[in-house]
């Protein structure tokens, strides 16, 4: 099981445009329209499946909200930050 990161470590390493919301990190991505947003969701889903670490994803017409936490650790871990970086790479 992964170990949670302390508050200072999370704040120091949180990727640009991501925010902390309790025991989660969250970012909302904006797109030109629905097809682009769906493509992004599919790309993130592929990464999540490979890593077996699945975010909460909310799809709107031209926005996608992504939230990461490590439930079995009870908070934010290295894996959450790494996958947030992967999401940014897909954007």
Automatic annotation (TrEMBL):
<dbReference type="Pfam" id="PF01329">
    <property type="entry name" value="Pterin_4a"/>
</dbReference>
<dbReference type="InterPro" id="IPR001533">
    <property type="entry name" value="Pterin_deHydtase"/>
</dbReference>
<protein>
    <recommendedName>
        <fullName>Putative pterin-4-alpha-carbinolamine dehydratase</fullName>
        <ecNumber>4.2.1.96</ecNumber>
    </recommendedName>
</protein>
<keyword id="KW-0456">Lyase</keyword>
<dbReference type="InterPro" id="IPR036428">
    <property type="entry name" value="PCD_sf"/>
</dbReference>
<comment type="similarity">
    <text>Belongs to the pterin-4-alpha-carbinolamine dehydratase family.</text>
</comment>
<dbReference type="GO" id="GO:0008124">
    <property type="term" value="F:4-alpha-hydroxytetrahydrobiopterin dehydratase activity"/>
</dbReference>
């Amino acid at each position: 099981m992964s170990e949670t990161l302390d508050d200072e470590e999370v704040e120091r390493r949180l990727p640009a445009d991501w925010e902390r919301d309790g025991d989660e990190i969250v970012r909302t991505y904006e797109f030109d329209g629905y097809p682009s947003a769906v493509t992004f969701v599919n790309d993130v889903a592929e990464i999540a499946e490979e890593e077996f670490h699945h975010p909460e994803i909310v799809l709107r017409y031209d926005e996608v909200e992504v939230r990461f936490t490590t439930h079995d650790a009870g908070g934010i871990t290295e894996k959450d930050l790494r996958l947030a970086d992967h999401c940014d790479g897909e954007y």
